[in-house]
Amino acid sequence: MHDLLREMALEISPQFLVKASIALEKLPEEHEWRENLLKVSLMRNHITEIPSSMPSPKCPVLTTLLLSNNKISTIPEAFFKHMLGLKILDLSCNHQLCRLPSSISKLEKLTTLLLCECQSLREVPALSNLVGLKKLDLSYTSIEELPQGLNMLTNLKYLGLGGRLFETLDEPLQNLSKLQHLLLVANYYAETEVKWEMIGIWGKLQNLEKLKFGFLYNLNMVFGEVGAIAESASLPAGTFSSLQDIRVWGCHKIKKLFSVRWLGYLQKLQTVEVDYCGQLEEIIGSESKEGEKVTLPNLERLKLKALPQLKTIYSGSLICDSIKKIAIFYCKNIESVFWSGFNPLPNLEYLVLSNLKNLKSVFDEEGFGLSPRVPPTSFFSLKEIRVAYCDQLKKVFSSGWLLCFFQSLEIIKVSRCSQMEELISSSAHEEEKVTLPKLERLELTSLPLLKSICSSSSVLICDSIQSLMIFNCKNLKRMPLNFPLLDNAQSSHPPSLKEIVVFPEESWESLEWDHPNAKDILFPLL
């Protein structure tokens, strides 16, 4: 919303009191807390205290109070006395807040209580009266005991827990059958021990859609045999039948995320994100029998970041042909993304690879286990590929013939790969012309050894190209891009092309185009 529109809307609405992000140091004066207020937002200010001498604001119909991102350390016991209609209370990101008034227990109409990132908070009043709560977030706090009455919050759909100890988690969670989002995150500076057995709980949480673990240092495996499930254990029908998203970060002792035998319970899984797990070696365990295929039929997004021991994305036995996006960052041991025996990814649309210091191949002809005459079906849907900071990578496409199977490509961005010599390598049996009919944007940045986009015998036809950008590629000479209008000796530039950006300026003069008049025709777009 435009600032002026927003300001006008707030001025003409007597039921809103909004003073957010204006460096406010004190609460509004008593007369500003009108009896008819419905919503109050004082977030992102510098409020340090709520004076004990301040009378409780008489706001009996107030439903929303947002005090997040301030510097509040204490809240007077009587502050909420006349706010019994509150449904949403957000006190998150008050890092100095160390205790809460017990009067919060009387806010029986609360549906949302947010205390995340109140790092000094060590205890929470009894919650047994707040049976209407649907969202409770205590993550990134210093609580040492679970709140009293947590097991009575049977309407909870979102639960975030932080602190140091989780050993009493089993019993209260068993009653939270409506839970959809579970976040368990310890303080990042404390080596929290996981002492609970989750097996008894998972079968109860059949509505669970999102599961997140953070900084649980001694967690060996999220779904697996080690410390969590015995070989003979079986789970109730419907376990994880709704689970869609899994995120794990800062669990430094975990070595693999899934045991293969768990995949049958994860058939609705759509997103997997794993960050900063220093000992993780496998996403999917490779203990399946030879020839046995396992599947994640709905997996769409896979994001991996800062996993220094990870060597492969998944084993050759895994089928996840619904995957649309793969993003991999800071995984220094990965040498090849797609290798011999991998299963097709016909719906993959986005591939992002960054800071893979030992990556030597992305699309390797040998990786497909196919000859050029037997086309793979793996990448027909790929629209965008981004590669950055992969210092050992000398080429993106190992063979020009592979581009025949990337006909949906719209964007190629390659940057800061110090050893990159060629975007597309070639072999003797290849045809001279390679077509990327949907390519709209080609961007090459800081590739000091790049000499050509493809070999001297090849031409890249891209009739839909709109943007061509070349930054700091000092050795790039030949531009083997073929435009139909240039071939027909027309005097105008290709109709799709909108811009050409070259830096530094003198690089333009050193570029060699196959068509003799290309520079003159394209110069107006430079």
Can you walk me through this structure?
It comes from Rubroshorea leprosula. This is Disease resistance protein At4g27190-like leucine-rich repeats domain-containing protein. Keywords: Leucine-rich repeat, Plant defense, Repeat. Residues 234-354, 374-479 form the Disease resistance protein At4g27190-like leucine-rich repeats domain. The protein has 6 helices and 30 strands. With 526 residues, the chain is mostly beta strands. Among the domains are: 1-163, Leucine-rich repeat, LRR (right-handed beta-alpha superhelix) (Alpha-Beta Horseshoe); 332-526. The chain has a 19-stranded parallel beta sheet, with no helix packed on it. The two termini are 36 Å apart. Residues 225-232 and 367-375 have low confidence and may be disordered.
Could you name the key traits of this structure?
three-stranded parallel sheet; 526 residues; 19-stranded parallel sheet; mainly beta; 30 strands; globular; Leucine-rich repeat, LRR (right-handed beta-alpha superhelix)
Cα Rg:
29 Å
Q: How far do the termini sit from each other?
A: 36 Å
- The helix count comes to 6
Determine the structural class based on helices, strands and strand pairing.
mainly beta
In helices, the fraction of residues equals under 10%
Q: Rough shape?
A: globular
Concise synopsis of the structure shown:
The chain has 526 residues and is mostly beta strands. Helices cover 6% and strands 21% of the residues. The chain has six helices and 30 strands.
